[in-house]
Design a protein that fits this description.
Largest sheet of chain B: 2 strands, antiparallel
Number of helices of chain A: 11
Order of helices and strands of chain B: HHHHHEHHHHHEHHHHH
CATH class of chain A: Mainly Alpha
Number of domains of chain A: 1
Structural class of chain B: mainly alpha
Oligomer: heterodimer
Strand order of the largest sheet of chain A: 1-2
Radius of gyration of chain A: 19 Å
Order of helices and strands of chain A: HHHHEEHHHHHHH
Distance between the termini of chain A: 46 Å
Strand content of chain A: under 5%
Shape of chain B: globular
CATH architecture of chain A: Orthogonal Bundle
Structural class of chain A: mainly alpha
Number of strands of chain A: 2
Chain lengths: ~290, ~325
């Protein structure tokens, strides 16, 4: 009975955790999964978003509401970020992946250190009434600080999926991922579509940041432990599969929760990376990705 | 760029000068700081063999470095092995790890390879964290036997050991560059399918590149326990090592053995001065900004800039090749 108890709790918290991971990975699923831009700075942007939400929360704003408003400036930030990136590489026609990876690596580092210099290395958190309370159903207990952000993800994924499949903008975005030149022949500027996609991904990062900081305190270096998880999620899902992201993330979340419960919490950070290495080695196209 | 005779003379002179230095310079701090710069010459040179010559970007340098650190720390603790044995063993572990990474390239290329190497760091760090024999999170205290009297102190001794390693690494890198191996690596970087179809044994070449690169980086970690007296997972698998391994060759220039050396000496010295005079946060910030600036404005590094200024040739089209 004890064992089933533990397993059920691990399953529930793992699923909630995975749902949050899916939100963290969503921006990367667009930039890396659809546009093939290896944005290793994405987790750092998420952490920056979490700090922005914490700052707004300091003035009494609800973190999720604040994040929703912050999506606008972050969208604009993303536009600027992509403009810089494409000016530096893509337009000059010498954007190999080494250089763009290195650029994003540098950007991630600068964001981290910028946060350290501006806010110090202390842990930051938000104060909301539901943090500290838990939902109990039978013998399964789930803290609201996991449950609330976990419920945001399905809504975001549904909205994103509807956008990608039902609107012209979404169609253009998928088309740019599929064949850039064909899109430019049909009279649409691929780089403006990509810029928009980057803005979208950055806006999603601030929502993810809100989810992250509701879940637990954040420091400027939190992005390092997230990096492996988000890439594991995107690669396991298969590039370009948005709903697959949720499935992959929940799988990883549950695996981590089981390792935490039945082995030791100190092994948990390695789980996502081990899954990532395994996926890359055995099935590089992921669970739902088309073979490339 | 430099004839073999000149190169050998300079290398021997530098080595001899290093061994005489403890007799002349009394303040051990210079050796303490110089050790770090030399260590980065080894790391950057090792990284460049895979990353610069063959074009496979390793983000997981600290995995190899950390493996070297822990191999030598363990041998020191368990068997009181001498430093030379530690270095050889660490290099062998690095070679084994490199070959394993090399087999990964069978399935994954480009960005995926880089991400996989990043994963390697975290997996190794987690394993060390949870291994009792390696001290777990609190680490190991590593105090070796006293150094030979000639060196007047432990710091001077490890400085000279690292100098020898740096010279060895540069000699290996220079030899590779001018030999058939270097030609094979460059072919792989230019186009793997094309190289394969021209009869370049790409898998074997990649395995060799990974093995040599991994061995050199791990060897750079081997004297660390003797240098710092204490090892723990966070510093052994530190991000700054992975960052510098990437930034130094990129700033110096990745096409020739000189690039990583120039980058390591420049950036390493700046960092040593900056950690003393400014704070370490601004130090990392400066490295990050410099990295971005170089990758955007001068992707061929200082050497590329230099040859562009000197010859007016388009450096992007012409790789730096020099006959021996």
């Amino acid at each position: 009975m004890m064992l089933i108890d533990l397993a059920a709790n691990a399953l529930a918290s793992g699923a909630a955790l995975g749902s949050i991971y899916a939100l963290l990975a969503m921006g990367l699923a667009i930039t890396f999964g659809l546009l093939h831009v290896p944005n290793v700075a994405h987790p750092a942007i998420v952490v920056a978003g979490a700090y922005a939400v914490a700052l707004a929360n300091g003035y009494g704003a609800d973190p999720l509401l604040a994040a929703l408003l912050l999506t606008v400036p972050f969208y604009v930030l993303g536009l600027g970020f992509y403009t810089f990136y494409s000016r530096a590489f893509e337009l000059r026609g010498r954007g190999n992946s080494l250089q763009s990876l290195t650029l994003f690596f540098g950007v991630a580092l600068v964001i981290e250190i910028g946060l350290v210099i501006a806010f110090g290395t202390d842990l930051r958190s938000v104060s909301v009434p539901y943090v500290g309370q838990s939902l109990s159903v039978g013998f399964v207990t789930l803290p609201y600080r996991f449950l609330v952000p976990a419920l945001v993800t399905p809504a975001v994924i549904l909205a994103l999926w509807l956008y990608l499949t039902r609107t012209h903008g979404g169609l253009a975005l998928r088309a740019v991922a599929h064949d850039e030149r064909a899109l430019s022949i049909s009279g649409i500027d691929p780089s403006s579509v990509k810029r928009h996609a980057f803005g979208l991904a950055t806006a999603l990062a601030v929502l993810a940041g809100a989810a992250l900081i509701i879940t637990g305190p954040v420091d400027p270096f939190t992005d390092r432990s997230l990096l492996g998880r988000v890439f594991a999620v995107v690669v396991l899902a298969g590039l370009g599969s948005i709903p697959g992201t949720l499935v992959a993330a929940v799988l990883i979340g549950v695996a981590e929760a089981f390792v935490t419960t039945f082995v030791s919490p100190s092994w948990a950070p390695g789980v996502a990376f081990a899954i990532l290495l395994g996926t890359l080695g055995l099935r590089p196209s992921g669970l739902f990705g088309a073979s490339r | 760029m430099m004839r073999t005779g000149t190169f050998a003379t300079i290398a021997v002179l530098l080595g001899a000068a290093g061994f005489l230095l403890p007799q002349v310079v009394a303040n051990p701090y210079y050796f303490y700081a110089g050790y770090v710069v030399l260590q980065y010459i080894v790391i950057a040179t090792g990284w460049n063999i895979l990353g610069g010559y063959a074009g496979y970007i390793n983000f997981g340098t600290s995995a190899f470095f950390g493996a070297g650190v822990y191999t030598s720390a363990y041998l020191m603790q368990a068997f009181e092995a001498p430093l030379v044995v530690q270095i050889v063993a660490a290099a062998l572990v690095g070679v084994a790890l490199g070959v394993a990474t090399g087999y990964l390239t069978l399935r994954i290329q480009g960005v995926y390879f880089s991400i996989a190497t990043l994963a390697l760091v975290v997996v190794l760090e987690t394993v060390v964290h949870n291994t009792e024999a390696l001290g777990g999170a609190s680490g190991l205290t590593t105090i070796g036997p006293p150094p030979p009297a000639w060196f007047k102190g432990q710091t001077q001794y490890v400085f000279c050991v690292m100098l020898v390693l740096a010279l060895l690494a540069v000699v290996i890198a220079r030899w590779i560059e001018t030999s058939w191996l270097g030609r094979g690596f460059r072919a792989i970087r230019a186009s793997e399918p094309a190289a394969e179809s021209c009869g370049v044994p790409t898998l074997r070449m990649k395995l060799i590149a990974c093995a040599i690169s991994g061995g050199i980086i791990a060897a750079a970690g081997a004297p660390y326990p003797s240098y710092a007296y204490h090892v723990e997972p966070v510093s052994a698998f530190g991000l700054l090592i992975a960052l510098n391994a990437l930034a130094m060759p990129l700033i110096g220039g990745t096409r020739s053995w000189m690039g990583p050396v120039i980058g390591a000496v420049l950036l390493g010295t700046i960092q040593q001065v900056a950690t003393v005079t400014i704070s370490s946060e601004y130090n990392i910030l400066a490295v990050g900004l410099l990295l971005i600036a170089f990758v955007v404005a001068a992707p061929e590094g200082l050497l590329g800039l230099l040859s562009a200024v000197r010859g007016g040739v388009r450096w992007s089209a012409k790789p730096a090749r020099k006959p021996a």
